[in-house]
Amino acid sequence: MIRVLFAGSLRLPREAMATVLSGVPGVDVVAQVPLGTDVVPSALRTRPTIALLDADLAGLDGVSAAVQLKSALPGCRVLLMTPPNRPDLLRSALAARVEGLLSKDVSISALTDAVCRVARGERVLEAHTVAEVLHMPGNPLGARDIDILRLAAAGRTPGEIAAALHLSPGTIRNILAAINRKLGARNRIEAIRIATHSGWI
């Protein structure tokens, strides 16, 4: 049985999607949440095998929610739904190591197929998504840098980031300073702005 957690800000589309997925043989929607901050607590209670996340979640965006979820529940696979014409989200979503990326304008059949494929261990990326990422400028940040800067952008302190990633606060401060140098930023706020504008977090 594929256990699905679905996170979407708008109630009607969220409930409609959950109803559709519940009608697919072998799929059980175990949770629906409206906020990005609800994803991890709900996942820890319900233990989904797949998390279907809207990239534009309120409270905490879908990419940041995916990062936190993968830290809290590594066995849960993530399928992120992104709005059309938002290439800035693509690289940060891939850096978050999500298992699938779909545009929000996909058909129901494409969505259900993607859920089943991700549950089987496949990675689902639409061809145009890959093409957009390949044409984006290079990212000087490593995966660890991205995780840390994304948590900093969500308002986490170095101590909170250290606890979330099982590192020391001193290590986090050193990495944040290195990120500033890589991006030519004067401080953390400027680094977050540069990375966000470039689609790296």
UniProtKB/TrEMBL annotation:
GO-annotated molecular function: DNA binding
Pfam families: GerE, Response_reg
InterPro entries recorded: CheY-like_superfamily (IPR011006), Sig_transdc_resp-reg_C-effctor (IPR016032), Sig_transdc_resp-reg_receiver (IPR001789), Tscrpt_reg_LuxR_C (IPR000792), WalR-like (IPR039420)
Domain Response regulatory: 3-119
Bilayer-spanning residue ranges: none
Record Gene3D superfamilies: 3.40.50.2300
Domain HTH luxR-type: residue ranges: 134-199
Signal peptide range: none
One BP annotation, GO: phosphorelay signal transduction system
Record flagged with keyword Nucleotide-binding: no
Positions of modified residues (4-aspartylphosphate): 54
Keywords (A to Z) from UniProt: DNA-binding, Phosphoprotein
Name used for this protein in its record: Response regulator transcription factor
